[in-house]
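Re-running the complex after MR caught last week's input typo. The corrected sequence lines follow. Everything else is unchanged.
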Amino acid sequence: MLSKYTITEENYIKAIFHLQEEGGLSTGKLSAALKTKPASVTDMLKKLKDKKLISWSPYKKFKLTVKGKILALNIVRRHRLWEYFLSEKLHFDWDEVHAVAEELEHVSSEKLIDKLDAYLNFPRVDPHGDPIPDAMGNMQQRAQLRLSDLPINAPANIIAVASQELQLLELLKHFEIGLGTRVEVKKRFDFDESIEVKIKNKTAIQLGEALTKSLIVKLI
Amino acid sequence: MLSKYTITEENYIKAIFHLQEEGGLSTGKLSAALKTKPASVTDMLKKLKDKKLISWSPYKKFKLTVKGKILALNIVRRHRLWEYFLSEKLHFDWDEVHAVAEELEHVSSEKLIDKLDAYLNFPRVDPHGDPIPDAMGNMQQRAQLRLSDLPINAPANIIAVASQELQLLELLKHFEIGLGTRVEVKKRFDFDESIEVKIKNKTAIQLGEALTKSLIVKLI
DNA sequence: AAAATATTTTAGATTTGCCTAAAATATATT
DNA sequence: AATATATTTTAGGCAAATCTAAAATATTTT
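Corrected-run output:
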């Protein structure tokens, strides 16, 4: 039974979860992710500790407890189910989906989410290719072949974008890269790890490392 | 352009709107509706006045401004569209719909609501029979649903009696039917258009056409 | 129209989440 | 290992929305 938490608390838990997964959890990183000051983060960490959602003590590393992780997975589940709904049913563009889901995820009815899940036919992956935890909190690993690792001349499809940064999504839109887009690596420049990629059937273009590492592909 | 308001502000505006429609708007009634104390209501009324959503001055009557009414209609629109969605798509029972919609209505994306509206095919009435304002804030009069038109097994309340005939009122008294009485149609006889109705929790009784066409009901 | 009652508002506190500035601790550099 | 730098925490405050208790105004009753 997940009791009720404030929207702020949930946002902290979610951010902690994601940073923890990336292996870069700290007060400073958290404050950056949440756009608050480190001092504010410390305040909240104490509260989360009191609620037994994280383990924490002054100046030490901190992390989610089991209880915290269960909550985090539940929030992630809500978020991704809503993303799926917005994209699949309401035909939102996939780069608009994230912001709205950010609000919807805090609606706390367990029943709502389970019914939504059923209505959507229990999708296991959201529009960004991220796996959706099921009602028990189980989430599959996601395939992790990045565009940056794709062999030369191997045709593949974009299946996920490993970042929600607006600037990135904007860039993808500009290049007309989306889920399912066919790509093929033509050349690799060791100098700056940039890559020459053929998108769909257009002439090859140059893409930087940050971008190609964020694009998850699957060989055709 | 509806700027952003806090959830609390929106709840106040919505409650003021409904009380205003029923003709019973006062600090005390508002505090009861919102489950806060009158003193808290006064505080908020000052804030809403500053934001030009209501007209108010100490100890005087207060009411929504045009700006306030537009906002109220927009909130009502969101609420009722979500209710429709929950009932129609997710198959929630009607009595569960309200509480969840109460949370969903505060998700502020205009685009979300318009797309939801389209997805639902622009319904004009929610599962309780209440009219849904359109994107322009236009709302039709509440449909006068007569007991004779009530679907089978749909619980409803008597909200009006479309006749003042003494004989009718006498009959109602005899059956212990009054405003607010819960009714549920159990069977319909096409032969003489009489109906078998369960009143409150008593055993169902037979009512004639003239009577059932005079009783206005509202789905619960 | 005065008194009694009911309603509403003011005044002063509390809690949540945030802030700035300063202190404490941890990490990196020499 | 000592110092310099970076990070994190503490201390003290602020704004939103609430509360209680007391004061001000309206309304009802006699």
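None of the earlier attempt is carried over here. The radius of gyration of chain B is 20 Å. The interface with chain A takes residues 86, 89-92, 96, 99-100, 103-104, 107-109, 111-112, 115-116, 119 of chain B (CB under 8 Å).
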